[in-house]
Amino acid sequence: MVNNNNQAQSGETVNKIPLMLVLISGAFAAILNQTLLATALPHIMADLNLEANTAQWLTSIFMLVNGIMIPITAFLIGRFTTRALFLTAMGLFAVGTLICAIAPTFSLLMVGRIIQASGAGIIMPLMQTILFLIFPVEKRGTAMGMFGLVIAFAPAIGPTLSGWLVEQFPWRSLFYVILPIVIIDFILAYILLKNVTERTFPKLDILSIILSSLGFGGLLYGFSSAGSSGWSGQEVIISMVVGALALTWFILRQTKLKQPILEFRVFKYKMFTLTTALGMVVFIAMIGAATVLPLLMQNMLGFTAFESGLALLPGALLMGVMNPVTGRVFDKFGAKWLAIIGLAILTITTFMFTNLTAQTTFTYIAVVNAVRMLGVAMVMMPVTTAGLNQLPQRLIPHGTAMNNTMRQVSGAVGTALLVTVMVNNTLPEQGVNGLVHGVNISFIVAGITSIIGLVLSFFIKRSRPEEDDPDQIKSKANNRTVTES
């Protein structure tokens, strides 16, 4: 097709290194910002005189709006140019960050977080889409490895950086640290970014936007609230029911529209479906541990917020280093054995967290978590790339949006599930060891999900099309024979 050839040509003429720098910087700022506030909430509560339930909305609303924006991004990519969309997203993110930094009241701080999240929700799937359009099939693993570096490093460095900043400076410093990164990235994007996505001018279906927002937003809010307040709360049940009904209606509507907001037909490609499921399993294991371990260290073992963040840092560094390496290995050998070995490591190390006690050392937690992150690095980006490789060019924006949406949902589900299991299985009468018992049980649940992922990984047959020629790949995709790859 002419459009695909144009994209390929633009991919060849684009200077990929500065473009990658622009995209990764934007994604890094977005993900880092998402994880910074958790450690700083007590300071914000004291400064603005807030209750814990009220302050928690600063993190919940970000994830909620982020989750709502991601499914809509596929529509936006078809509607607007690459440059216009990326610059708008970074502009919104910058404005939201500035509002948060100077906000004198909680209400204005919430407004800033909402504006931030509306930009951040666009950045991640747009970045993945651009990478898949400017890199040929045989180089996508390496490119996605760099993307994986961001996915891994930002969430883990967030609590450590936040813990240090709020001990040294006012909580507003968190936003002042992010703001220069965003502004510099905006300027570089204006200079360097090229238009590589194809504009298809899809029709705007207002009802689909509303249903998508209610569906994904309701489920994400329900699972997030369940993680802190349990499953029986009225607001949890109502939001889950509304979310499930709206999402069902949304999915049924998308299958009937000629130009759907989010293309659920990507799940006709079996490899994409399988690898998306694997990515969700791994993300549950990763995000759940990132939530449970700081709770264990601060509330049960007596470590500071900074120390609990520091324990996650070796894993983040190892995963950051390994993601580009596993990306190159994927380009040569595919995803199957990377996934099998990675999930085996993840399963073993997860069960090593099921025998924790009040005497468990900082070193043990940091080392075992680091090896777990090695396993995650071997699975996360390779299986994501393997799945997206099976899609024809026209479906890549929908595939990246779907992949990121499922990751958000699995993160919310995993956090809620593991925290709820932990709380429900504590034995307060047995002192600290009784509290740690709940953590051990939550890691048994995480270990079971890892085993499920390990079994699924054996069904990966081959992780990329046989030919690198775009027309042959497109033809095979249209015939759906590539789904068996």
Write the layout of secondary structure elements.
Blueprint: H1 2-13, H2 16-48, H3 52-55, H4 57-79, H5 82-102, H6 106-134, H7 140-168, H8 173-192, H9 206-229, H10 234-256, H11 270-300, H12 305-333, H13 336-351, H14 362-389, H15 396-424, H16 432-457, H17 470-479
Task: Please supply descriptive tags for the structure shown above.
single chain; 485 residues; mainly alpha; Growth Hormone, Chain: A; 80% helix; disordered N terminus; disordered C terminus; cell membrane
| pLDDT averaged residue by residue | 84
What is the CATH domain class of the largest domain? Mainly Alpha
- Summarize the biggest pleated sheet: none
- Proper CATH architecture of the largest domain: Up-down Bundle
Tell me the β content: under 5%
Describe this structure as you would to a colleague.
The protein is an all-alpha fold. The chain folds into 2 domains: about 1-200 and about 260-485, Growth Hormone, Chain: A, CATH 1.20.1250; about 205-260. The chain is built from 17 helices and no strands. The protein has helices spanning about 1-15, 15-50, 50-55, 55-80, 80-100, 105-135, 140-170, 175-190, 205-230, 235-255, 270-300, 305-335, 335-350, 360-390, 395-425, 430-455, 470-480. α2 (about 15-50) runs antiparallel to α6. The longest helix is centred in the N-terminal third of the chain and has 33 residues, at about 15-50. It is globular, with a radius of gyration of 22 Å.
Explain briefly what this protein structure is.
Helix content is 80%, strand content 0%. It has helices spanning 2-13, 16-48, 52-55, 57-79, 82-102, 106-134, 140-168, 173-192, 206-229, 234-256, 270-300, 305-333, 336-351, 362-389, 396-424, 432-457, 470-479.
